[in-house]
Write a structure and sequence with these properties.
alpha+beta, 8 strands, Helix-turn-helix domain-containing protein, about 50% helix, 12 helices, 8-stranded mixed β-sheet, about 300 residues, Jelly Rolls, 2 domains
Amino acid sequence: MKKDIPVYSIDKLSLFKQKDIQISRFAPYLAVHKNLHLAHKHDFYHLILFLEGGGTHDIDFHTFPVRPYQIYFMIPGQVHSWSFEGPVDGYVINFSGSFFHSFLARADFLSQFSFFNGIVDDSVIDIPEEIQPKVKHYFEALLKESDTDSTFGLDMVRALLIQLFITIHRISDAEKSGKTSLHNYAILKNFQKLIEANYNTLRLPKEYAEKLFLTPNYLNTICRQLMGVSSGEVIRIRIVMEAKRQLVNLDLTVAEIAYNLNFEDTSYFTKFFKKQAGVTPKEFREAEIKRVNRANSRLGSIT
């Protein structure tokens, strides 16, 4: 296990001429980047549509089975790894945060899509059978545009990506519409954005409710309706996630991580982490080291 989790940029991974966008079939991409089975981060947006394959993939330490017509989305900074079984194929798209800036007036355009909110359970989606051909068509069109030097080629890629994002977003929107109003969903999105910006300093639901001009009880009700947990738990989940991301960096001691996350002392951080994660920070780190070593052994036996 490396002492510091690697962070990859598009220019290190790209096999293509554009530095801000990379589109490929997944099998050749995987053949070139075999090291990506280990835990790593990206400084770009990343999505994969699986068409065939098995095994598992992890996003922020949540494990998902690989299955055909599953698509997942990742934002910069999330931790990711793979453990595939047998041949795997599909499509992969990587793009920088600035890829849409010259095309759209809204700087926050991507944040309106639920799968780009950094919440793991919102970012892995099984495509319903009735729209699988439509989704596959978008990826094939994106591949074709990326391989040509046509006039407005990159703008066509951007337009196709937006159509793909809207199509996928409507799937999750349809699921959520039966649970609560779009107004409440918008409140949850704003709550999540505030947590992302303030989780290191604001820990109480009432502090966020005040910023959202809501009562703490109403905010709590929305979280339970949409996420099945309390507003306080939503905050704690984000803190634990950051702790896990830092724990896989072996250059950081547990005490340093506790300090980074604004805990009063290491003992309090350890108790908090164990209550939320079920293991101590040390036990989590040791388990991750063993998991990486097993993955390295499997890869070694294959190669």
